[in-house]
């Protein structure tokens, strides 16, 4: 995995960094500079965001400076311009999480915070749990089926008219294999794994867009709630996938 930043065109180009690094492309006075920066080691969200702002804007501020809404917008835009300096950048997950924490604590109304915590985060956690359960069952049953099928192939070579025990063992193994196939088909473990994963990712995507306000009307609490409820309503009806006609949450 990598963290990639596209430089302004002209001159164009890319900065490709490791996933945990901040990728930055500076253009000033016709000169281009690429950087891959390691975030500072701290658990304080304000310090992380201030560090990113210092590196991006090259303006004087401390790690304890107050974070304003304008500061958040600079980071969300992924582009900063000052006189003849143009900076484009791509933030690593550590910085994005810090921004989300600051937005939640400083710029989101209490009732939406409660909705996020009780409705959205709890459902995301529930679906993630179901993803792990169904993934584990699919892998376990598939491995068991492969082992049983291999044993059948192995033992078949030892069958003759005088080896009733081997024939019985092969028959039992065949029955086990058929049973596993039936269990997988009836319980739809693989289908449920994909469906639960889809729902969890859609919920996380909506939450991310709402908190980061990166697209159009995503900062509207009313529309955010409508989209979340639309996703959950379709999920609870047992749909196995989300087509454009099923989920028009982006319209």
Describe the structure.
It is a single chain. It contains seven helices and six strands, in the order E-E-E-E-H-H-E-E-H-H-H-H-H. By secondary structure, the chain is α+β, with helices and mostly antiparallel strands. The protein has two domains: 2-106, no CATH class; 110-236, no CATH class. It has a four-stranded antiparallel sheet. Strand 1 (2-6) and strand 2 form a beta hairpin. Helix 4 packs antiparallel against helix 5 (164-187). It is elongated. The model is unreliable at 240-251 (pLDDT under 50).
Give the helix/strand class: alpha+beta
Number of strands: 6
The biggest beta sheet, please? 4 strands, antiparallel
What is the N-to-C order of secondary-structure elements (H for helix, E for strand)?
EEEEHHEEHHHHH
Instruction: Kindly give the count of domains.
Output: 2
- Uncertain spans: 240-251
Gross morphology? elongated
Indicate the multimeric state.
Answer: single chain
Taken as a percent bin, the fraction of beta residues is: 5-15%
Average of per-residue pLDDT values:
84
What is the CA-CA span between the terminal residues? 31 Å
Defining traits:
alpha+beta; 2 domains; 4-stranded antiparallel β-sheet; two-stranded antiparallel sheet
Short overview:
This protein has seven helices and six strands; from the N terminus they run ββββααββααααα. With 251 residues, the protein is an alpha+beta fold. Strands 4-3-6-5 form a four-stranded antiparallel beta sheet. A two-stranded antiparallel sheet has the order 1-2.
